[in-house]
Structures are given as structure tokens and as C-alpha cells.
Design a protein that fits this description.
single chain; 286 residues; five-stranded parallel beta sheet; two-stranded antiparallel ribbon; globular
Length: 286
């Protein structure tokens, strides 16, 4: 007799898909829990439910309600999925990955090498971000994004706050490729006014991470309504930018004490820019 699959048997990606499908129907408190566990996958895997509830300032029973809202029997089943994901993320590492992460949480690393503990923590987090990017971004999806950008009349690039370096780099690279690229920097509080230039046949490349800037989401929505394509770089399926994008990439899911890495997103931005350059040379050669 075939085994009947339960929610507890789900992979991390399947869990994310379930959560994304149910997210809008969750209460405000359950959405708060959802955002926390996705922003803090290490803590979700390793901390007790009581510790997580204390950090969220909710009752432990709220975690149970959250799990049941996703058709799990309890929060421990969700934690099991997160633990399994940590072990599988880096197959070349020891299976006892949780011990390594515990050391990171204490500000140390197995391979200190005399470097500062804080540096080791962020080196490890950024390595994890790049490894995750490698498994998340498929060649066909990247090629599709490059083709969409190449075909656009105008390319608008947007990233605020911590995402601004990514947007600035993309703009710099595309301008050097003699592309019709425009950085929506919002100088003088004119972001919405700048975005009014976006129209049909254009593309908006946008990077946004928690806490997702309302003005960035508004610009993306406005661009979509104007007939432009939207390519997004964000962290998870429940990001508000996902629903209004034509294609998206999930990058830099890793945080260290609330500080998010941007290494994966910068690497993706480099791949997009260099991919456009290579595409341009191939077109020129006919």
C-alpha cells in the first residue's frame, strides 16, 4: 500500500508554496509568525517553540494555531521541515549541521583561522546565500529575464534602502552597455513621479526585501498597470512583489541577528548584467 504523504513530509520549497497560497487568508498575528520564521530559518529550526513565541511576544498556542492554519498537526512538524532544510542546504558539510549553526549563533565558527568572530559569522552566512542562489536560479529563468530586459524599450531599475546598492550597480553596468536604463532613485521624494515615465514595452527591474518599502511596491504595481514587465529580486514567495511580477528570483534569505546579506542579490545582478553584455555581442555578430 502506497504511503500517504502528510504535510510533515513536505520539502522546504513545498512548505513555502503552501504558505504563499494561504498567506493572504491568515490573521495579522499569524502573518507576523509567518514572516518571522521565513526571516529566521535557523532560529525556527533550532529554538524551542517557547523561545520563538517569547521573541514574537505571542502565546505558544499561537504557533500551534499557525501550524494548523496550514494543515499541520503542530508547530514541531514545521520545525522538522526547517531542520531538514538546513542539513540539505550544504551537502558537502557534516550532517550534524545544527551544531555548526549553534556555533554561529554564539558568534564563532568551526574554521576561525584567526579571523574576527563577526567576520566568520558573515562569511558563513554569505556562503550559504550563494549556495542557495545556485539551487534557486535555473538557467532557463535567467535566460528568460535577460531576453525580457533586452527586448524592452526602456529599462527602469529600482531598489531602496538596503537594496539600493544592487539597483545602482545594475544601472551602472547597463549604462556602460549603452542600454536605455534609468535609475529610479527617488531624489527629492519624486519616486512616484519618476515612475510615471514607465509604459508599455518597458521593463522594471526591482529589488526589495523586508521590511518591503510601500513606495517600491506601489511603483511596481503602477508599472504593471501601465503595461510594463516587472522582474523582481526578493526573499520569499510571500513577498508582496511576487504577485505583481512577471518573473522573480528568490535571493538572500539568510539573516544574521536581523542583518540581511545582499551577496546573493549582487551576484544575480552581475549575472544579469554580464548576460546582457554577452547577448549584445552575439546579436552584433549576427
Amino acid at each position: 500500500m502506497a504511503k500517504i504523504e502528510t504535510r510533515a513530509d513536505y520539502s522546504f520549497d513545498e512548505f513555502n508554496a503552501v504558505l504563499a497560497g494561504r498567506f493572504d487568508g491568515l490573521s495579522k498575528q499569524l502573518k507576523k509568525i509567518a514572516r518571522f520564521i521565513l526571516d529566521n530559518p535557523v532560529d525556527t529550526a533550532l529554538d524551542t517553540a517557547a523561545e520563538i513565541a517569547s521573541r514574537l511576544e505571542v502565546q505558544p498556542s499561537s504557533l500551534i494555531r499557525f501550524a494548523q492554519a496550514l494543515d499541520f498537526e503542530g508547530f514541531s512538524e514545521i520545525q522538522r521541515i526547517f531542520r531538514s532544510n538546513l542539513v540539505q542546504q550544504l551537502p558537502g558539510y557534516s550532517a550534524n549541521y545544527s551544531d555548526r549553526i549553534e556555533k554561529l549563533k554564539e558568534g564563532t565558527s568551526e574554521n576561525a583561522g584567526g579571523a574576527h568572530p563577526i567576520l566568520n559569522v558573515f562569511l558563513e552566512a554569505n556562503r550559504d546565500a550563494l549556495t542557495s542562489l545556485q539551487s534557486e536560479v535555473s538557467a532557463p529563468r535567467l535566460d528568460e529575464a535577460i531576453a525580457t530586459i533586452r527586448a524592452a524599450n526602456n529599462i527602469y531599475i529600482l531598489g531602496q534602502r538596503r537594496s539600493y546598492p544592487v539597483a545602482s550597480y545594475l544601472y551602472y553596468m547597463m549604462r556602460n552597455l549603452d542600454m536605455r536604463a534609468f535609475l529610479l532613485d527617488g531624489v527629492g521624494g519624486n519616486l512616484i513621479e519618476q515612475a510615471r515615465l514607465i509604459g508599455e514595452g518597458d521593463v522594471l527591474v526591482v529589488a526589495t526585501f523586508p521590511n518591503y518599502a510601500d513606495e517600491v511596491i506601489s511603483v511596481a504595481q503602477q508599472a504593471r498597470e501601465s503595461g510594463a514587465k516587472v522582474i523582481a529580486m526578493t526573499d520569499k514567495l510571500v513577498s508582496p512583489i511576487v504577485k505583481i511580477s512577471d518573473s522573480y528570483f528568490l535571493t538572500d534569505k539568510v539573516t544574521v541577528s536581523g542583518f540581511r546579506t545582499i551577496t546573493g542579490t549582487m551576484c544575480l545582478a552581475q549575472a544579469l548584467a554580464i548576460g546582457l553584455g554577452l547577448d549584445s555581442e552575439q546579436i552584433a555578430r549576427g
